[in-house]
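hi!! sorry for the late reply, been swamped w classes. u asked for the two structures so here they r. pasted raw, havent cleaned anything up. first the sequence of the first protein and right below it the C-alpha cells
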Amino acid sequence: MKRSPPLPRPPSADVVEEVRAALQPLSPRPYTAADAREAIHNLGRFFAVLERWAVEDARAGPGPLATDPDDPSPGTADYVNLRRT
C-alpha cells in the first residue's frame, strides 16, 4: 500500500482546542490536546484517501451503467438523473 504524503502543516493551537472541546463530550475520559491532534491527523489522512480514490476513479473513466431503464438504482444514469431533479 502506498504511503500518503505528510499533511501540509500542523494545526494551530486554536484549531486543536476547538476539536478538543467538540470531541470531549464524546469521550468517557478527559480529551487532551494530543488526542485532538491525533483526530485531526486521522481525519486529514481519511480525506487524503478519498482524494486518491477520486483521482484513480477519474483516470479509470466512467463505470458501466445499467441498461434497464426501469431500474433506477445507484450507479445508473437514471438514478443520477432522478437525483438532479
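now the second protein. again sequence first, C-alpha cells right under
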Amino acid sequence: MNKLDELKSRFFSKALDGERLFLLSVEDAVQYILSGKELGLDLLGVEGFRVTEAGAFQPRQEASNDIAYYTGDDFVTETIRFIQNQSSTYWYQVGFSDSKP
C-alpha cells in the first residue's frame, strides 16, 4: 500500500462520498493535511464543496486553493489557515502528490 492509500484508509470513515470525491469536514481536512505532511506527501491543493439539502455536491472556487497559483513560503500552513477561515459548512477534497512510494 502506498502512502496516499494508507492515508485515505485512515480517514475513510470520516469522508463524505469516500469512494468518489472523498470530502472531509474542515477539522478532518486539517488533520488529513497534517498527516499527509508527516508521511512526506506533497500537498497540491484543496477544493471546497458545498453540499445542498438535496445531497448534491457543488464545487466552490472561493473555497479552493491550488499550489499552481501559490507564491508564498509555506503552502501547507497557509492552506490550513485558508480553509479554517472559510465557512464551516464547506467540505474539502484534498489533493496530494502520490508519486512517492
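hope this helps!! also noticed smth abt the second:
The first strand starts at residue 42 and ends at 51.
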